[in-house]
């Protein structure tokens, strides 16, 4: 809960200065959403820090990675330096996930690494064609991946 107020402040300040879609505002929003994981976990009983760590890590890896990957092909398209950021983030998250999470979740994090690597490549290859990569296509990919994360969380214990 200590992170909620600063994250909200970052989001509000960014909005006030016309940067609501900036990276800092997006990360602030993700932090606000991540507070919901322990809140939802507390509905099942007393808060157990170990029981909260794994699902919060998975949610953070997915949400932050999504923010970075989508940004790399929409707001930062053509920026090869930024395209490396989501890839590096996902590789690091997968390495940590290999320690914290069961194999099905590590495989899912590996799928997110592949997504982070392929999105900028597809965007570059289709840039000057009749069918460039559109935000709606990126959104559809992200919707499927989000469904995979949520679905796996329901069918496989963390």
Helix and strand topology:
Elements: H1 4-16, H2 23-34, H3 36-42, H4 49-73, H5 80-100, H6 103-126, H7 135-155
Helix pairs in contact: 1-2, 2-4, 4-5, 4-6, 4-7, 5-6, 6-7
Domain count: 2
Structural class determined from secondary elements: mainly alpha
User: What low-confidence regions span 5 or more consecutive residues with pLDDT below 50?
Assistant: none
Instruction: Specify Rg, calculated over alpha carbons.
Output: 17 Å
Shape: globular
Instruction: Specify the number of helices.
Output: 7
The proportion of strand residues reads under 5%
The multimeric state of the shown protein is single chain
Count the beta strands: 0
Could you walk me through the main structural features you see in this protein, from its secondary elements to its overall organization?
Helix 2 (23-34) packs antiparallel against helix 4. This protein is globular. The two termini are 23 Å apart. The relative contact order is 0.10. It is built from 7 helices and no strands. With 158 residues, it is mostly helical. The chain has 2 domains: 1-34, no CATH class; 46-155. The mean pLDDT is 90.
């Amino acid at each position: 809960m200590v992170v909620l107020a600063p994250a909200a402040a970052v989001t509000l300040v960014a909005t006030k200065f016309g940067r609501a879609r900036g990276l800092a505002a997006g990360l602030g929003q993700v932090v606000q959403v991540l507070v919901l994981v322990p809140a939802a976990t507390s509905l099942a009983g007393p808060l157990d820090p170990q029981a909260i760590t794994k699902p919060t890590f998975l949610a953070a890896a997915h949400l932050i990675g999504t923010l970075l990957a989508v940004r790399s092909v929409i707001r930062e398209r053509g920026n090869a330096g930024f395209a490396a950021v989501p890839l590096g983030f996902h590789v690091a998250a997968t390495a940590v996930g290999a320690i914290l999470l069961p194999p099905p979740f590590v495989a899912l994090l590996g799928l997110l690494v592949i997504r982070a690597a392929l999105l900028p490549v597809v965007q570059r290859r289709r840039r000057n064609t009749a069918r460039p990569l559109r935000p709606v296509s990126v959104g559809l990919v992200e919707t499927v991946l989000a469904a995979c994360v949520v679905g796996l969380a329901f069918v496989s214990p963390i």
